Amino acid sequence: MTPRVPRLSSLWVRRTSASSPSPTIAVGGGGRPSPPELVTGRISVQTSRVWHRGLSTKRVGSLLAVAVRLPAPIGRSHAPWEALSRDTAWEAIMKKPRAAVGSRHRKKASSQEGRERHNLSSNQAKPSAPDGLSRRQKKVVLQAPVSSYHLFRDEAEVTVFRESLLSWYDREKRDLPWRRLAEGEGDLDRRAYAVWVSEVMLQQTQVATVIDYYTRWMQKWPTLQDLASASLEEVNQLWAGLGYYSRGRRLQEGARKVVEELEGHVPRTAESLQQLLPGVGRYTAGAIASIVFGQVTGVVDGNVVRMLCRVRAIGADPNSSLVSQQLWSLAQQLVDPIRPGDFNQAAMELGATVCTPQRPLCSQCPVQNLCRAYQRVEWEQLQASRSLPGSPDVEECASNNGQCQLCAPPTEPWDQTLGVANFPRKASRRPPRVECSAICVLEQSRALGDTQILLVQRPDSGLLAGLWEFPSVTVEPSGQHQRKALLQELQSWAGPLPATRLQHLGQVVHTFSHIKLTYHVYGLALGGQTPVTITPPGARWLTREEFRTAAVSTAMKKVFRVYEDQQPGTCKSSKRSRVSTPSSQKQLSPGQQVLDSFFQPHTRTDAPRFDSAAQ
């Protein structure tokens, strides 16, 4: 008969000072913790009022020594007392060898259960290796708490951070077209649209690149209704060259949903924005909701990640779910309740202009005094210079013993040359997938004297969906049989073609976000041959001028430059092939001309010049 056990209400943990190697715990049955037995250097367990019978005090102490190492959920500040859940403590205690409370009539345990019991027995001797913990306990281990070193101490410190950052932003913010448009627009839906377009364009794209695209976009489609009535072809044409082309397509899908299903009104909260609009994620939703509608919600983009990781010395992988959750928690804690939109823009502005990936401008940082990474740099400099006796008093992570899940791993030591750029940790990225493609620029003459080139449209989904490109086929890197496969592809679009005119012109390597694609570029010019008049669906002939404004990717423009460079009488577009003429050279001053003529070696006048052939 199994011994009855009274209800265990809670397991309380008291954390000792940073100098103590481990916390102290106490188990109690009431709403308040029982006072622990403070023993320096080890864990002390008070086991009174836990068992009436069934387990010895020694057994309970050993098992709770394992359980106490399970930390509390992430994001909570460490109060003097912390409680582990009753179920977690109960499960840790009940995972004991069956011999302690076993019965002759019980079924034999499975081999897996036996292994778990064996591991738990080992953990009683080695509490630091919780291999025998149950699945539920392992899940709790992954949700480890963070040291107060990575948090803000109190509301006063948060207030100083907000005021310093907003004061700096009011003085130093850049004059950007989407900010001017949003600030001067009284209609909330039009204002939300202006911010929405900018936030989508700015994803993975630099501000300098976006400005021109944004201006042309808003001139062409100033309202959601204008964008909703546009064709995908027009959207792709304007987006061409900006990269990540699915962004433009989803932006238009979102505009159509607002116009057709939401009566022209953009959702007012971050939650509804993310739920209702295609392509709007957590960051974009938070940016629109805070900037336009004043919702007090934080945002985390690449710039904010970098800034927060340095301010709170977070050296773990920022792409991990645990670190990401902590960064969002910090952003939500910091966002100003009165000016949430300005605060979020200020945080992103700081990361983009001051707290940059390389060579950050720490001397211009408004929150330098609160930056733990900067404090670490100063401490390292003092240690290296030995200018002061003893060790300077600098706050460190109390859990920085290789077990803090927000600190950099021990395998990545501090790099003195990087300074604050030691944070954040560079995420390990997989190398892009390598692919090869044979592609051909097929050109034919027209009766009017100009020429046309053949373009075909890509599928509606996948890489470069809906864009136009030259006919191509995927080939093996070895390049075997690529001419034959490419010729068959060309003939499927244009009919019979002279195979002898298909010429290999060179290669173009273009890297997408996850693919490194090598194009083997071919050219085929149909000189005096009868022009192709039948064009199947998904193909069209364009003049060279029309091609330059068509919805084609940057990779296709690279391919076409290779083709142009091989044509007789065409101006070489490659920088390497350009040769400066005397008329285009900068006029030298008389004194410089005298010096040049003095130091220039004598050359025979009848000798051929190198650049004459090129001209």
From TrEMBL:
<dbReference type="InterPro" id="IPR029119">
    <property type="entry name" value="MutY_C"/>
</dbReference>
<keyword id="KW-0378">Hydrolase</keyword>
<dbReference type="GO" id="GO:0006284">
    <property type="term" value="P:base-excision repair"/>
</dbReference>
<dbReference type="GO" id="GO:0034039">
    <property type="term" value="F:8-oxo-7,8-dihydroguanine DNA N-glycosylase activity"/>
</dbReference>
<dbReference type="InterPro" id="IPR000086">
    <property type="entry name" value="NUDIX_hydrolase_dom"/>
</dbReference>
<comment type="function">
    <text>Involved in oxidative DNA damage repair. Initiates repair of A*oxoG to C*G by removing the inappropriately paired adenine base from the DNA backbone. Possesses both adenine and 2-OH-A DNA glycosylase activities.</text>
</comment>
<feature type="domain" description="Nudix hydrolase">
    <location>
        <begin position="432"/>
        <end position="564"/>
    </location>
</feature>
<keyword id="KW-0411">Iron-sulfur</keyword>
<dbReference type="Pfam" id="PF14815">
    <property type="entry name" value="NUDIX_4"/>
</dbReference>
<dbReference type="GO" id="GO:0006298">
    <property type="term" value="P:mismatch repair"/>
</dbReference>
<comment type="similarity">
    <text>Belongs to the Nth/MutY family.</text>
</comment>
<keyword id="KW-0496">Mitochondrion</keyword>
<feature type="region of interest" description="Disordered">
    <location>
        <begin position="570"/>
        <end position="593"/>
    </location>
</feature>
<dbReference type="InterPro" id="IPR015797">
    <property type="entry name" value="NUDIX_hydrolase-like_dom_sf"/>
</dbReference>
<dbReference type="InterPro" id="IPR000445">
    <property type="entry name" value="HhH_motif"/>
</dbReference>
<dbReference type="GO" id="GO:0046872">
    <property type="term" value="F:metal ion binding"/>
</dbReference>
<dbReference type="InterPro" id="IPR044298">
    <property type="entry name" value="MIG/MutY"/>
</dbReference>
<dbReference type="Pfam" id="PF00730">
    <property type="entry name" value="HhH-GPD"/>
</dbReference>
<keyword id="KW-0408">Iron</keyword>
<dbReference type="InterPro" id="IPR023170">
    <property type="entry name" value="HhH_base_excis_C"/>
</dbReference>
<dbReference type="GO" id="GO:0000701">
    <property type="term" value="F:purine-specific mismatch base pair DNA N-glycosylase activity"/>
</dbReference>
<keyword id="KW-0227">DNA damage</keyword>
<protein>
    <recommendedName>
        <fullName>Adenine DNA glycosylase</fullName>
        <ecNumber>3.2.2.31</ecNumber>
    </recommendedName>
</protein>
<comment type="function">
    <text>Adenine glycosylase active on G-A mispairs.</text>
</comment>
<dbReference type="GO" id="GO:0051539">
    <property type="term" value="F:4 iron, 4 sulfur cluster binding"/>
</dbReference>
<dbReference type="GO" id="GO:0035485">
    <property type="term" value="F:adenine/guanine mispair binding"/>
</dbReference>
<keyword id="KW-0004">4Fe-4S</keyword>
<dbReference type="Pfam" id="PF10576">
    <property type="entry name" value="EndIII_4Fe-2S"/>
</dbReference>
<keyword id="KW-0234">DNA repair</keyword>
<feature type="compositionally biased region" description="Basic residues">
    <location>
        <begin position="96"/>
        <end position="109"/>
    </location>
</feature>
<keyword id="KW-0539">Nucleus</keyword>
<dbReference type="GO" id="GO:0005634">
    <property type="term" value="C:nucleus"/>
</dbReference>
<dbReference type="InterPro" id="IPR003265">
    <property type="entry name" value="HhH-GPD_domain"/>
</dbReference>
<feature type="region of interest" description="Disordered">
    <location>
        <begin position="96"/>
        <end position="137"/>
    </location>
</feature>
<dbReference type="InterPro" id="IPR011257">
    <property type="entry name" value="DNA_glycosylase"/>
</dbReference>
<dbReference type="InterPro" id="IPR004036">
    <property type="entry name" value="Endonuclease-III-like_CS2"/>
</dbReference>
<dbReference type="Pfam" id="PF00633">
    <property type="entry name" value="HHH"/>
</dbReference>
<dbReference type="InterPro" id="IPR003651">
    <property type="entry name" value="Endonuclease3_FeS-loop_motif"/>
</dbReference>
<dbReference type="GO" id="GO:0005739">
    <property type="term" value="C:mitochondrion"/>
</dbReference>
<keyword id="KW-0479">Metal-binding</keyword>
<feature type="region of interest" description="Disordered">
    <location>
        <begin position="15"/>
        <end position="38"/>
    </location>
</feature>
<keyword id="KW-0326">Glycosidase</keyword>
